[in-house]
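Milestone M4 deliverable, item 7.
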Amino acid sequence: MAEGSTGGTRAGGEAQSDSFTKREKANEDFYIRQQEKEKYIYTTTTEAAKLGTAKLSEQQRHLEELSKHIDEMAKEGGGEKN
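Output delivered:
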């Protein structure tokens, strides 16, 4: 292969940086950052959804307890009478 042909090594090796090499590196870095960002967003939203579901279940359980307590109070004839 002749020097400078496709697939050949460039004069100056890896140390040489022209505009194409810089652009290619920037594109690769951008792609990696985008993938990491998507992974982060997916992870955080999934965790938030799990926490939200757990919190909702806890609140529903608490409401059920309060409802039972109100029913017990009503059966006992408790409460304020004027």
